[in-house]
Structures are given as C-alpha cells and as structure tokens.
Specification:
2 domains, nine-stranded mixed sheet, 16 helices, 24% strand
C-alpha cells in the first residue's frame, strides 16, 4: 500500500456558495472568538461552522459540526471529486519586510505511522486539550477538514520541477484573502501524472511543520476505529490515512517566523534581582518603547550569530544577548544535547523562565499560562494591558530544526511558525 496516495476529496460547489474566498478560514488554532464571529458573518457556508462551530440550541458544537457537514453533503454544498486526485496548492504572500514569495506544495493523503516508525517526524511538544477537542470533532464528523503541513527533502528540486509543469494551466481555485495573499489550487486527477509525482516523494521522510495536535489525533482516532472493527480490519480503510499539505524543505517560498511569548501572570520576582541573574549569562541593551522597530532590528541582527531574547516590561524592551560559554554554567542547559541547547526557545523556557524566574516546566505546559503571539507589536501591547512580561523571539532556523530531528528530540511548544498557514476549506477528506 502506498505511503502517499491520491483521494477523492470533497470541495465547495461554487454554484451553491458563490465567492469561494468567503467560505475559507485559517486553521482552528488561530481563531479567537472575534475572528470566529467574523467568519460566521462572512457566509452561511464558511468552513468555521464545521471546523470550529458554535453551540446552537441544545446541540453542543461537535453535534452542530456533524449536522452541518452531513447537510452540506446532502445538499451538494460540498461535492466529492469523481476520481482520486492530488491538489496542487500554491500560496503567494507578503512578509513584514516587503518581500513577496510563493510557496509551492500539494495536498494528498499520507498513511499514518507512529513517530517511532520514523517516516513522519515531529519537532514540537503537544498539549492534551487541543488533541481532545480535535478528536471529538473527528469522532462526530468522521472526516478531516484541515491538512497537516509537512515538509520533505528535495535538494535537487526533482518534485519541484513536476509541480511547475503541473501548474502551467489555469488553476481550479484562485482566491485572494483579506491580507492580499493569493491561494491557487489545481485538482490533478491524471493517474499517470499522480504516480510520477508521488513516486518521486513516497519514500522520503516527512517533518510535521504545523499540525502536531491533529496528527496525533488522527493516530488516536485510527486506533479507536481499528479496535471497533476487530477482525474486520483490513488496513485499507480511509481512517488509516491523514490529509497532508506537503512542501519541499528547499522550496524558495518556505519561511519560518517567530512566535513571541506573553506570561498570563507576572511572576513574583524582583525585577532588579532578575536582571542581575540574567546579566551573569547575557549582555543587556535597553530600548524605550518608542523605539520598538529599532529594538526588533537589533534583535534580528544579533540573532544572525548569537542567542537573543527581548524582555518587555515597565515600558521598555531589554535585549538579552547570551554568551555561548556562560550558558554552559547553567545546570538547566548544560545537561541538554547541543542541538536542543542551541535554540533560543530552550534558553527562554529552561534558563530564563524555569531557572531564573521560577516558572516550573509543569506550569509552562499548562494550557493558558503562556500566551503565544505571532506579532511582536501585539505581544508588547498585550503585556502592557495585563501588566506582565512579554518575551520577543527571533525565528528558529531551518538548520536548527533539522538538527533536533536528527537526534530524535522535540522542541518546546510553538518553537516554529511556518508562514503562512494553509487555508482550511480547500479540500475535505472523508473517512466514509
């Protein structure tokens, strides 16, 4: 049985829903209540009404999702493709520095493997809460609505050349979102072309870039279904696979951005004592809040060769540049493998938070104690509103991610932010 395979996806019927840009949504984990309301208002067919539904009348949100999904299939709001297909998906987007890039990949289904089997590799820790939520949704709907984002090695761009050829015709879906990013999707149902592309990548290891919770959820769901079938289990059932958006590690449009941290509550530690503790390991340069851009630019420049964190508090930003030799004096860091110790997020969570601020690892992992924010300005503002600390981060480098994977370790939660996230709603994968 192939590891990567085509499938008959369900897609929105434009004749029923109209403008396809109005029915798409970002992944569930970046949707707050305000954005949820906005997406609900966009269209009665926005995918958020399934992927992150609201309670209605006496129905919990998972029952609402089940009812909505079933109804949309019955009324042909969603139609299943006639042939097994793969779906080329290209995203053209802008970065904060003004660069405009295109990331190229394709959506297919990947046979589930445990991480111990080695074909699919994680790089981040997960939380139990989101996995429980996604499992209830999967149990209710018997389907998957958002692809796992995975990366494969393609140093010679062998697969990339095929993607370029397959995308020469007009896309089946071409939409622009509110940020001005372009999303293009091609449905490829030519069996020979599919076999050629998948034959190129089928045995290559995959790194989960985004969607660790959903992948672990799919594993748990598959085990449940296998147990229910008992002797009738064949291994060919659709639930043995998960929908993935697959992109090359060497794709020119692949970018990693940082995720900043805001503590939900300010630690009860004297700031001068804390600063003194930090100064044993790092040089500190202070910027007033009026010079946020300069502070971030300084962080990025220092971060090219050094470990750097930005501490936001009391109306200022203190940039901490750590000495590689001095951090070895930390018991928290010295016991770690070099590849783990080489990460700014490790220095933050193990040295700064746990050892110096006294925020225990258990408390750090407890959902809600640390807020993960994508935009530095938003993190700074939130810290001010909550009268707490924010820590600004540089992006984790791809070579650091690969080094961690090579030793079979995982990074702290939210160590990477592969930008932009794939849209939810382009293709649905049904287990029926």
């Amino acid at each position: 049985m192939p590891k990567i395979d085509a499938f008959q996806g369900y897609r929105y019927n434009p004749e029923k829903v109209g403008d396809l840009s109005l029915v798409m949504a970002p992944p569930y984990d970046v949707i707050d209540p305000a954005l949820q309301d906005k997406l609900y208002d966009k269209s009665p067919y926005n995918v958020v009404r399934i992927d992150l539904a609201k309670e209605e009348n006496d129905l919990n949100r998972y029952s609402v999702s089940q009812h909505t999904y079933t109804t949309w299939k019955q009324k042909e709001i969603l139609r299943q493709d006639e042939k097994p297909s793969i779906y080329l998906y290209f995203q053209t987007y802008s970065l904060p520095d003004g660069r405009r890039l295109t990331r190229r990949g394709f959506i297919a289904r990947r046979r589930l493997e445990t991480f111990a089997e080695g074909g699919v590799k994680p790089h981040e820790q997960t939380f139990p809460g989101p996995k429980a939520d996604r499992l209830k949704l999967m149990q209710s709907t018997n389907a998957s609505f958002s692809p796992i984002f995975a990366l494969y090695p393609d140093p010679s761009q062998e697969a990339g050349a095929q993607l370029a050829q397959l995308s020469e015709r007009k896309p089946d879906i071409e939409i622009r979102d509110e940020k001005g990013d372009e999303h293009r999707l091609w449905c490829i149902d030519d069996a020979a072309k599919i076999e050629r592309l998948l034959g190129t990548v089928h045995d290559r290891p995959l790194l989960i870039a985004d969607g660790h919770h959903r992948y672990e959820t799919a594993l748990a769901f598959a085990e449940e279904q296998k147990a229910k079938l008992g002797d009738r289990f064949t291994g060919k059932e659709p639930f043995n696979y998960v929908m993935m958006y697959i992109c090359a590690l060497e794709d020119p449009g692949l970018v990693v951005l940082p995720t900043h941290r805001v503590l939900a509550q300010k630690p009860e530690v004297n700031e001068e004592i804390f600063r003194g503790l930090v100064s044993k390991y790092a040089k500190i340069k202070t910027f007033p809040m009026s010079e946020v851009k300069a502070a971030i630019r300084f962080m990025e420049e220092e971060g090219e060769h050094e470990h750097v964190l930005g501490w936001v508090h009391a109306g200022q930003i203190e940039i901490m540049t750590f000495d590689v030799d001095k951090i070895l004096e930390s018991q928290s860091l010295n016991r770690l493998h070099f590849s783990i110790r080489d990460l700014d997020v490790t220095i933050l969570h193990d040295l700064v938070m746990e050892e110096l601020l006294g925020v225990a690892k258990g408390a750090q992992k407890e959902y809600g104690n640390i807020l993960y924010i994508k935009e530095a300005v938003e993190a700074i503002q939130l810290a001010k509103e909550k009268n707490t600390y924010a820590f600004l981060m540089n992006a984790t480098k791809l070579k650091q991610i690969q080094a961690v994977i090579a030793i079979g370790e995982k990074m702290p939660q939210k160590s990477t932010f592969f930008y932009p996230k794939p849209l939810t709603g382009l293709v649905f994968y049904d287990f029926a």
